[in-house]
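JOB MANIFEST
job_type = single_chain_structure
chain_count = 1
residues = 553
[input]
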Amino acid sequence: MAKHNLTHPDAKNMLQGSSIAHFVINKDHTIMEWNRACEVLTGHSAVRMLGTKNHWMPFYSSQRPCLADLLIDLAPRSEINKQYKNMVIKKWDLVEGAYEIEGFFAPLGKRGKWLRFTAAPLVGSNGKITASIETIEDISSRKEAEQEKEKLNKELLKSNHRLKSLVLRDYETGLFNRRFLDEVMEAELTRAKRYNQSLSLIMLDIDYFKSINNMYGHQFGNLCLQQLAKLLQKSVRRYDIVVRSAGEEFIIISPGIDRLQTLVLAQRILDEINVYNFGERDSTVKLKVSIAVVSYPEEKVFKSENLVELAEQVLIRAKECGGNRVYTSGDGKKSKTKFLLQKTNKQENILGLRHKLDRITLRANQNLIEAIFAFAKAIELRDHYTGEHVEKTVLYATQLGRSLKLNTEEIEDLRQAAILHDLGKLGISDKILLKNSKLTDSEYTQIKKHPQIAADILRPIHFLRSVIPYILYHHERWDGRGYPSGLQGELIPVGARIIAIADVFQALTSNRPYRKAFTKDEAVRIMKEGAGSQFDPKIVKVFLKLIKEKKIS
C-alpha cells in the first residue's frame, strides 16, 4: 500500500465523513482518530476511544487478541501465526508496514463478528512512519456463506462416501456385492504374492433355491437369504470378507489361510447351514448348499479372475455330484480346470468360452430341476403326510444306496428319484388323495397311475431321464405282481427296488388318515415277511442291518 499523511484538515474531514469504518493509531497504540462508521460497527463512541489505548483492549473479549500489538510492531509472521490463531493473515509486508488480516472478534455488547482489517502506514514530515490508518469491514455474511459452503462440502463428501459404500453393498443382505469383489480380489492376490501368503476363496451356492421362491414366495426367499448372510458373517473369521456375488451365490474371501484350513472352515459352515431352520416361526425350511474351495498358491493362478473362475468350475462339479457338499479343485474331474494352466491366448479364449457355456448350462439345468422340485413341493401343500414322507424316503434310500456301494452318480439319481417318486400324485384328485378311509377298487386304480404320470412329466427333460425308471417302477414287486408293468426280480431297476423298500418302511411307521403308525418292530416284521415276494431279499437284509445298527431310525 502507498504511504498516507492525515495532517491536512481535508484529509481528516474525509476520514470522519466516510461511510467506511476507519481509525488511526500511533506507535504507542493510542487511538488518534475514530470515525462515525467505527462507532456504528463496534458500538464504541469516539469519546471513549480517542486519546486512549486502555479502551482498545476491552474492544475485544478477553479470549481475543489485541490488534494494536500488530499494527506497527513488525513481528515475524511465524510468530503471529502462533500467537493469533483466530486470524487469517492475507498480507503482511514488513518493509511497507502494511497488512491485511481477517479474524473473528467479539466487541463488547455486540455479537461476535468476522472482521477484515486492512492497514497502511502514515508518515510524518520527516518521512518516517508515525502511525497507521486502519479500515474495518464486517465480513460476517461472507464468512458465514463460506462456512456454510464448507459444511455443505463436508456433507457432500460424507454423502459420496455413503453412496460409494451403498454402490458396493447388496441392498437385500447388506453384504458386499460383485462390484466390490472385482475391486478387492486383485488387491488381495497382489498382497498374497508380495508377502508370500495364502489366499483362499469359498464359493457357496444354494441348491434348488428357485423351488423355495416358487412355493413360498420371493419375500420368504429374501428372508432366507438375509438369514443366510447373517449366519455366514457369524461363521467366518474376523478378517474374512463375505460377498453376495449373485442371486443365491455367495463368496468368502479368506486371506492368510491355506486350502486345508479353508476346507475345515467350509465344512463347518456347511454343517451350521444344514442344522439351521430358515424362515419364520410358522414356516421353516432347510437349505442345502454346494461349496467350492480354492486357494493360492496351491492353485497356480496368475490373476484374481482366474481364482474366481476356478471356484465356479469346482462348484459345477460339486453340484453335478449331488450338491450339499464341499469340493476342491482336487475333487472330481480335473480336466474341467485345465483352462487356467494354458499359455496361449487362443487356448485361453476357447477354454474360457467353454467355461462360460458350462456355467450357463448348469444354471439352465438347475432352473429346470428347481421347477420340477417345485412341483414336488406342491404335493406337500396338498398333503402334509406326503411332504414328510418324501424327506424320510430320501434319507432311507440314500443311506441304503451307500451301503450297497452305489457310485456317486447313482446315489444322486437315487436321491432325485426319491424326491420325485410321488410327483405323479399331482394328477390325482384331492378327493382320492385326501380320503380318510380305505380306497375303493376304482380309486386304487386311479392311484396306480401316479408313477406313469410322473414319468410323463419328466420324460421331456433330458438330464432327468436317468431317474425316470426308478420312479416309474418303484411299485413293482419282486414276484412280478406289482404295477405298472409287472416286472419281476432283477428286471426291476435297482434304484426302484431301493425306493420301494424306503417308501414302504416310511409309510408303515407314519400315521395315515385311515390307520395309526406301526411300531418299528412291527414294521421290521412286515419288511421281513415281504422279502422275496414284495421286495428284493438281499436289499431287505442290508436295510434291516442298517436299522439294527441304528443308522436308520
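[summary]
The chain has three domains: 9-144, 168-371, 383-548.
Residues 54-85, 333-346, 381-387 have pLDDT under 50 and may be disordered.
exit_status = 0
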